[in-house]
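Re: adenosine-5'-diphosphate structure - here you go.
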Amino acid sequence: MTIDALPVAFTEGSTLPGGLEARAVSAWFGEHKVLDRVWLQMPAGRVTALIGPSGCGKSTFLRILNRMHELVGSASLAGEVLLDGEDIYAARRRLTDARRQIGMVFQKPNPFPAMSIYDNVVAGLKLTGLRAGRDQKDGLVEECLTKAGLWKEVKDRLRKPGGALSGGQQQRLCIARSLAVRPRVLLMDEPCSALDPTSTRRIEETMAELKAEVTIVIVTHNMQQAARVSDRCAFFLAEQGTPGFIVEHGPTTEIFDAPRDSRTADYVNGRF
Ligand code: ADP
Ligand code: MG
């Protein structure tokens, strides 16, 4: 497949592609059950924030959403993950298809440090087996760096190594690399935890612009950030050795201003 065959940027509308849905997802590492029947809709055109204390399964859930969970030898799962209504784990769906459609950005920025900024973006294509000509690559690099809010800062030094950028710029480079295959969904696991406040704001601005065309699911420990960037929130919890589950989910304003469960109120108000 070449990049011309990929879906073009999406327009506004009620039938935006990229809606993700978890149906009764449970997960285990060996005998250890870490998630219990998680149901969650992550609509297209929206930012969904996953919040909750450490160890309640947020990262595991995120990895399940793009089939990274199955790479851990001891891992198993039950339930379904639907992208636009189709199970990403269905036998006929290839792993690389899921990876191309559902990108991931991690806590620690991980560009290829010795590789140029330009090649870092293009590497996103190679990882999923896509080909592109030189002109296509030039256009794609500019497009992805622009969307990631980095183009103006790096356009005159695209041949410099990715590792020479600041931490915040490296994280935006990783976002650009993820966007190179035009994913429908971008998963972000605490993408700003390692960054200073100014870089954090830049990433938040990028998310606000990207969400019109890429469904975003973000794990964050920063409640102000969840309130600023997300449209919907899901509060995960694991109580006294029980597997993680969702206490409640809904529009972010409701989760913060009118939670139904006292545990949610305690968590969003920093009481545990
Ligand atoms: P969170 O992201 O909410 O902090 P995680 O998804 O990282 O939570 O972890 C959930 C549970 O799964 C924890 O009990 C953790 O120890 C366990 N766990 C996570 N990754 C692995 C792994 N690769 N092997 C075994 N157990 C794991
Ligand atoms: Mg985590």
